[in-house]
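Handover notes (outgoing to incoming on-call)

Open items:
1. Ribosomal protein L7Ae/L30e/S12e/Gadd45: sequence verified, structure written out, both below. Nothing else pending on this one.
2. Nothing else urgent.
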Amino acid sequence: MNDEMLLKAAATKKRVMSLLGLATKAGYVASGEFSTEKSVKEGKACVVIVAEDASENTKKMFRNMCTFYDVPIYIFGEKTDLGHAIGKEFRASLSINDQGMARSIEKCLNQESSK
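Ribosomal protein L7Ae/L30e/S12e/Gadd45 structure tokens:
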């Protein structure tokens, strides 16, 4: 049973990373601390993703900001994985600025967290 759960988690992670790559190619991603913060404050961000291995200060800053601006936030993946998915070296934070793409990514992330 445990192996089955690990396989499902890996498949979900792969799906999210693929969707992030697609969103990047479509121009719906703002990555990096400054760009992510800017898109949240301008009301463009539909969802924010922060890497699990980001600093506690970064996680806290984005949690507070996303709560204030009413933007969903997910702590997911590692900096290198997020960066690789969007064609960069590493990224601690990114925002999805399209409602449809954000919904698809959220759906996958919610499946991951419900297990």
